[in-house]
Amino acid sequence: MYLIGDRVVHPMHGAGIIEAITEERLGGKRSNYYVFRMLTSGLTLKLPVENCAAIGVRSLYTISQIEEVIRHIPLLEVDMTNNWNQRYRENMERIKSGELMKVAQVVKGLMWRDKRRGLSNGERKMLHNAKQILLSEIVLVCNTTYADAEQNLNQTMMIGANSV
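The chain above was modelled as a monomer; its predicted structure follows.
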């Protein structure tokens, strides 16, 4: 169970803070909810306490774990199928996993694909969302600005893209 003030990550929305824990009645049943606010966008969600593990809510990575992810980005393989539907499903599963390395793989793959061929509107939105998830955690853990984190991430993601 998380406490008020804990910084956590929602796999589909990114990093934020637990601002409150409320008890509410829904359909005749009383349940506890975390009031989760993303610091980068201000989005506020109510997450059912009993479902957080199933949803994939987790604690933030440590700074050394974030640095490890960033160090491995240039080594990540970009191997995406040409079938748009299959590629979309595979990328969505990577994002839902909540693992930063898999989210980074989605961001890198879509950035490279965009450079080579362009992206559909659906993939452009997926790239934006995956990047937000990744950046929100980097900003919170590394105590940096969003703009600096995004610039560094973009440069790191594109290492080797010209050779493809």
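The mean pLDDT is 92.
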